[in-house]
Design a protein that fits this description.
Structural class: alpha+beta
Helix content: over 70%
Strand content: 5-15%
Shape: flat
Number of domains: 1
Number of helices: 2
C-alpha cells in the first residue's frame, strides 16, 4: 500500500468521523429563508453540506487545471 493510498484512507476516515460528530452533537435549528422557499435545518447539516460542496468544487477545479496543463505539455 503506497503512502498516498494510506493518506487517502486516513483522510476519508477523519472526514466521516467529523461528519458523524457534527451531525449528532449539533441540535441548533437554523431558519434558512431563500426567495420563495423556507427551510428549518440543523446547523450541522448546513456546515456539512457547505464543506462537501467546497470539496467538490475544489476537485472539479483541480481536474480542469491539471487536464489543461497536461494538454499544454503534449503540444
Amino acid at each position: 500500500m503506497s503512502l498516498s493510498t494510506l493518506f487517502l484512507l486516513i483522510s476519508v476516515a477523519l472526514l466521516g468521523t467529523y461528519s458523524f460528530v457534527l451531525l449528532t452533537l449539533n441540535k441548533t435549528i437554523v431558519h434558512l429563508d431563500l426567495f420563495f422557499l423556507e427551510f428549518d435545518l440543523q446547523l450541522g447539516y448546513i456546515i456539512l453540506t457547505s464543506l462537501l460542496i467546497a470539496i467538490l468544487a475544489v476537485i472539479i477545479l483541480e481536474i480542469i487545471y491539471f487536464s489543461s496543463k497536461r494538454k499544454n505539455e503534449d503540444d
